[in-house]
Amino acid sequence: YIVKDGISALQYAASIVNRIIKNQYIKILVVDDSKTFLKQAEDFINRYKLIPLLSTNGEDALKTLKENKDIKIVLTDYLMPKMDGIELTKRIRSNYSKDELSIIVTSNASDSRIPSKFLKLGANDFLYKGFSKEEFFVRINSNLEIIELFEDMKNKVNKDYMTGLYNRRYFFEFGKKIYEDNKKANKSLALSIIDIDNFKNINDSYGHDVGDEAIKEVAKILNKNIISNSLIARLGGEEFCILFYNRTKDEIEKLLEVIRRNFENNFIEINELKINYTVSIGCSFEYGKNIDDMLQLADKGLYDAKKNGRNQVRY
Ligand code: GH3
Ligand code: MG
Ligand code: MG
Ligand code: MG
């Protein structure tokens, strides 16, 4: 690559490295009944440091899609025995929207109505077979960029800017689904609220910026200790919420105690200050009528914890 000066050369190199690092997790599914085409596509995809997955028919492709979460692009042929590209596109679009998965159709069909037919059914792009390596890369890249833009936008809408945790809106939207699925299957659910004790004092004594850092620290500790089967969110201010699903009561009780103790025993360094603060936690294992109900039950526990001297977990 020819770049004018040192700094832009470095920036350019960094952007390529970034793309390569990102690509290592991006899967592209290629569906074609021609083994020769699959081999060629596999080779192109490997060169671009993406992960190729190959299917020789539609049924198998749908199965592969179900089993692999991080497929971002499906590259499908038009004419295939049993299920053609049209049917496959329809089936994919009934489950995956354009903001999570891109469909690129590849064909040498001479009928000029075919590309528009595919695009109307929800395909994103159409590539005539015999494409060059460069055209292939450019199309893949522009489709990935669109998906990344969507992901970026979704992150901005669903996450709390300060902590990177999910926000209140997302918590109730996605939490409702988790709640309903787990209640229906009679699987365990627990909801806990974590609230910093006497947080006003931190703000009043050290300023709002230090208060913000204390809030970020909670997010860090929650992320560090709670890894699976949970939805963690910042509900607002210095209040956090965790929905645990399919985990035992015992496990959750231990986990909440670890979190509580983490604050009790640690001095947190913020702007050369060493401050110590505690948290109170309320938790409910009852389903209640709905997720709001569950939150109220957990809030009762929190109220008890505050009333009884703070720095404790109440159920
Ligand atoms: P308690 O132990 O009963 O929970 O008392 P507390 O002082 O922690 O709780 P209270 O609800 O009285 O005060 C919460 C304060 O949090 C009030 C508000 O100004 C502050 N706050 C809310 N959001 C933010 C924020 O994003 N950053 C900072 N620094 N402060 C915030
Ligand atoms: Mg074919
Ligand atoms: Mg508080
Ligand atoms: Mg509060």
TrEMBL record:
Keyword line: Phosphoprotein
UniProt KW Phosphoprotein keyword: yes
Residue span, GGDEF domain: 187-315
Gene Ontology CC annotation, any one: plasma membrane
Top-level taxonomic group: Bacteria
Modified positions (4-aspartylphosphate) in chain numbering: D77
Keyword field contains Phosphoprotein: yes
Domain Response regulatory: residue ranges: 27-144
A GO MF term: diguanylate cyclase activity
Catalysed conversion reaction: 2 GTP = 3',3'-c-di-GMP + 2 diphosphate
Enzyme class (EC, first level): transferase
One GO term of the biological process aspect: cell adhesion involved in single-species biofilm formation
Protein name per its UniProtKB record: diguanylate cyclase
